[in-house]
Write a sequence for this structure.
């Protein structure tokens, strides 16, 4: 290990030289390789399942497919360059690849955030609407919404290219993103950060929280009004599973990116040297891991997805453990790609499924 030295300082720009110990660089590369493999395999299974059951997909489930596209797009377009740079102990490609990498990260990051926001809003609307009103959410409507999400994300991603905001290397040298430290004395840059923070982070996050709190309250009220005592245990289990599946997807994404957002905002108001390079590296790696979570959540909560994944095993040598659960709840929770109608809460004694197809 003593012979692992970074490239000489004079061979490239200082900002693209790794500020980390070579062992840390190798470890970061291995971590990203594992995340990339899990992301590509998991989200490929999601997309394959969606293709196989395309005729049964309900409109809200198209947003789940879009989220998988964003995650796998990030893994394919960004992680190979990041891994190669980590193992080279310096950023590869200079300014051009740095701008490309940062743009891709911003594009897919905003797309994922807005997709999660749209999933929460649609699920809230379907949960609180009658059957006739919920049928107004068609595949065409969701496709238009998805197109708007991509255009909105692309708009924000290209703004730094036209002079509002900047892209640049991370403080540790082997990754690129929005150049947070350049905004310290720039009114132009600070206005970009403030607008981006409000419109791409705070408002979507608050919307997600408000929608799922509304869904939880609706489920809770319907549960309280159940008159048939024999159905209460099932209703309680249903409430738990539906809440977990819907919320874990959003919580996983938000919790992964919160440490990164915190360190980024710290660097806006403080010198980039005020934090150790490894301190800025860890939140970055944690944020990138968000692309790998969702397929595991689907696998645990969706019986349909588990069955489809097992069908794909005929081409693979690996096996996936079976997560068993109460059979009476399986059909209620396995709404993803199941072809069931979107269901709504009912305060009547006869209990109906209390949410739309889970995202």
């Amino acid at each position: 290990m003593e012979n692992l030295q970074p490239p000489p300082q004079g061979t490239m720009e200082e900002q693209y030289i790794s500020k980390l110990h070579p062992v840390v660089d190798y470890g970061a590369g291995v971590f990203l390789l594992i995340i990339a493999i899990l992301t590509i395999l998991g989200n490929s299974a999601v997309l394959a399942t969606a293709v196989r059951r395309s005729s049964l997909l309900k409109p809200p489930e198209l947003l789940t497919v879009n989220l998988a596209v964003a995650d796998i797009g990030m893994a394919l377009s960004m992680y190979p360059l990041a891994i190669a740079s980590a193992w080279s102990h310096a950023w590869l490609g200079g300014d051009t690849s740095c701008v490309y990498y940062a743009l891709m990260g911003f594009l897919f990051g905003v797309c994922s955030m807005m997709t999660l926001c749209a999933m929460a809003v649609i699920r809230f609307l379907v949960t609180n609407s009658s059957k006739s009103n919920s049928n107004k959410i068609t595949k065409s409507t969701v496709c238009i919404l998805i197109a708007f999400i991509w255009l909105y994300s692309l708009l924000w991603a290209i703004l730094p290219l036209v002079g509002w905001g900047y892209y640049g290397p991370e403080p540790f040298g082997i990754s690129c993103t929005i150049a947070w430290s350049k905004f310290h004395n720039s009114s132009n840059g600070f206005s970009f950060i403030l607008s981006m923070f409000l419109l791409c982070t705070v408002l979507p996050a608050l919307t997600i929280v408000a929608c799922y709190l509304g869904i939880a309250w609706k489920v809770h009220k319907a549960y309280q009004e159940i008159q048939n005592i024999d159905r209460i245990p099932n209703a309680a289990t249903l409430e738990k599973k539906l809440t977990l599946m819907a919320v874990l997807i959003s919580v996983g994404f938000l919790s992964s990116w919160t440490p990164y957002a915190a360190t980024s905002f710290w660097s806006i108001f403080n010198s980039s040297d005020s934090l150790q390079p490894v301190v800025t590296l860890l939140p970055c790696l944690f944020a990138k891991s968000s692309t790998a979570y969702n397929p595991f959540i689907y696998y645990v909560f969706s019986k349909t997805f588990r069955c489809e994944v097992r069908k794909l095993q005929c081409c693979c040598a690996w096996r996936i453990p079976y997560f068993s659960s109460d059979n009476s709840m399986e059909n209620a929770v396995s709404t993803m790609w199941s072809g069931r109608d979107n269901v709504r809460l009912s305060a009547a004694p006869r209990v109906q499924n209390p949410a739309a197809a889970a995202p």
